[in-house]
Amino acid sequence: MVKWLNGYIARSSFAILVLFLFLLLGRIVFAETSTPSPSPTPTPTPTQTQDNSSKASELEKQIREYEQKVLELQGQGKTLSSQIGVMNSQIKLTELRIAGVKEKINQLQQDIAVAQEKVSKLETDIDRTTRVLAERIAAVYQVGRIQPWQMFLTARNIDDVFSRLKYLRIVQVFDKKKVYAAEQAKVDYNNQKEIFEDKEAEAEVLNKKLEGYTQQLDSEKSTKESLLSTTKNDERKYQQLLAAARAEYEAILGIVSGKGDEVEVGGVSEGARIASVIQGQSCNSGGSHLHFIVQTNGATQNPFNYLSNADYENCSGSSCNSGDGDPFNPSGSWNWPINPKIKFNQGYGNTWAVNHTWVGQIYNFHNGIDINSDSSEVKAVKSGTLFRGSYSGGGGCALRYVRVKHNEDGIDTLYLHVNY
Question: Of 11, 220, 271, 382, which is least surrounded by CB within 10 A?
Fold first, then answer.
């Protein structure tokens, strides 16, 4: 009995010791280990070489220099040589801007390639990690959850217990690492995909800018050739051109300010014939067109705010349908003063011609629109009272026009370069 009791006490003491170790190690082994929260991994960008960096800096420097040069030349005397100098400098400036945009696109394409490679690698990592986790889940499900007390019942000795606990800890850490890796890969993938899409969008914007500069360069070269063709590179002819444009502008300002000689004709209905466009050259004007003006209480307005939509050909830029001309955007309800199809030669306000041709030396704001069509007939856009007039100023000729004072308060329309 004493022998059995001594044995029982010994076994109980061992069991208590084992239980104590189990509780102590269980807290250590199965305590929640902290897992860092996944955070986006930055995308590495290609290392910009010294050559690329210096090239970009040099382009920016040259662009600033030519911007200043263009401003200086524009302030010089109004001679043919100075105008050609402005055009040449503007062409060079546009060429430098094209080179600058191309350099940015080149760098961006390298960034896109890096981001694309990163996205592709992350897709592979996510697939691999997902597959490993799926296999792990299947294995745990098949074996079942191992309870700590089961290890003590089946352990051969205390060393075996420690060995199994160590193994469980390794498995636990491995599983947590895989879960974290999967979460991190997903965060990185979304981050890199967003970066990739942003870079592509930026590249698209730059490509559109490049397209615009290329179109502008073609336009500037065309304008220069047109000026040389018109003047035959002759200073005298260029000064005659400026004088005629200046006289025409003076006459238009005189008419708009009410200084023209007018005769009242009488009432006129909407759509009635009131004049015809002069074909060919007219007083200080180089070609057939109707200069159409809308006034409210003496102030000129954008005719497109009153005119309705119509079939047209845009010839207000470097050439017809070149894409660089003034906007044709009617939003009103009036019928047009000439029959469509409208040939649109110049818009209202700060126009392409003002910014890219020699007329910018005469005026900086176009107070109407210049239009033409196959029909020379000019019609009243709305009913009102018709006046016929002319203005004699510089150049020794009289610019003829008609004016309709409409029934709406304060609205007048003027039709210049016409016969009646």
Answer: 11
- pLDDT of 334 over the 70 cut: yes
pLDDT value at residue 364: 92
**pLDDT, tens digit (0-9, with 9 covering 90-100), for 7-33:** 433 443 343 344 344 444 444 444 444
pLDDT tens-place string over residues 283-300: 878 789 999 999 999 899
Model-level pTM greater than 0.85? no
CA 126/CA 118 separation, integer angstroms: 12
Could you tell me the end-to-end alpha-carbon distance of the chain, in angstroms, rounded to an integer? 143
